[in-house]
What does this fold into?
Amino acid sequence: MYQTSLLASLSFLLATSQAQQVGTQTAETHPKLTTQKCTTAGGCTDQSTSIVLDANWRWLHTVDGYTNCYTGQEWDTSICTDGKTCAEKCALDGADYESTYGISTSGNALTMNFVTKSSQTNIGGRVYLLAADSDDTYELFKLKNQEFTFDVDVSNLPCGLNGALYFSEMDSDGGLSKYTTNKAGAKYGTGYCDTQCPHDIKFINGEANVQNWTASSTDKNAGTGHYGSCCNEMDIWEANSQATAFTPHVCEAKVEGQYRCEGTECGDGDNRYGGVCDKDGCDFNSYRMGNETFYGSNGSTIDTTKKFTVVTQFITADNTATGALTEIRRKYVQNDVVIENSYADYETLSKFNSITDDFCAAQKTLSGDTNDFKTKGGIARMGESFERGMVLVMSVWDDHAANALWLDSSYPTDADASKPGVKRGPCSTSSGVPSDVEANDADSSVIYSNIRYGDIGSTFNKTA
It folds into this structure.
């Protein structure tokens, strides 16, 4: 994800946490979500995949009872005296996806509601795709010389919200085999990581992140611990109805899969570029690239008042799955018309409408940003991650760190909006305040559907 430590901004009002033991109060039943695997020779074949809720949202209670191990912003330190003890004493329970979390599936469509009110109130959510016919393993996507396609409806996502679909290099079993204290694994949504090295993940490497746990000053239901959880990340889609960006983020070569950081490795605060991962990434946001009419709800080329298709292609140097990744291309399909991604509207970027190392260098130079993407390994490093395999993540959330202004407004807010790269969308700099969107846009939602992946050119109608 882009610019800020976005995981710290995920807001949820349940007494939830990520656990390592398995509770027995609620049966864990994974909602089915049909996806398709495609080839140019054989067409597309249904895959009997399903989704699982991230463990950070789940009820965490004592193994032998109903006492919360974590409530609001605080651990119960009488139970969780240290990380390993907490993992032994606390259990992660099953989820009521629709009633409690506002998450439902129908055929190939996933709907994620922003605010769901039942006996408690839930805000936002994050799910992962499980492998076909498996309750215990995430689907691993290896997308070099492949394409990934999905349909999306963002018509009900206003300024300040982010419907994000992306890949993170998580362990396929959620860390179950690596850490003896993790008894829950992918079946209960464990093992999250991304390039922001988030500190709000409550269990990392099979241990509770209780050391130096500090309550958030902006979110009454969040906090951060001593450790962060890092890995490579490919943001296929971060968007609302007003703006969108796709962004590769990479980490140093030593970060393969999920990596627990501490201290300067996490790249916190003023040490943003000194950590193991590239937090800025190399983003392509059409509005930020100078084309303010390509995407949006007011007569734009991509009309966000209606559903459309997003195609992302991962091009290698030799057009094979073993070659180095060199380019990430974007296409759209709407109203049966294939629409190429917009070209940047600045002279030094005018030849680019995809992400390459050359584009990233030119973009960073124009905007005056640090090219940490290149420092950490560039687009080839992203390809190495896809060669090992990445997990599909789908979410909806608001941003307690920066009000999502980095996505849909002028950011930083004190910068000259006429400077290239500052304007990222048409939303006001006063928009996106979590208390406002949670109160006024509670009925917001996003729908992801018709997920397809496979040979380049096999997942969408090229002749439309």
Summary: Residues 357-367 form the longest helix (11 residues). The mean pLDDT is 93. The helical segments are 83-89, 97-101, 357-367, 372-375, 378-388, 405-408, 434-440.
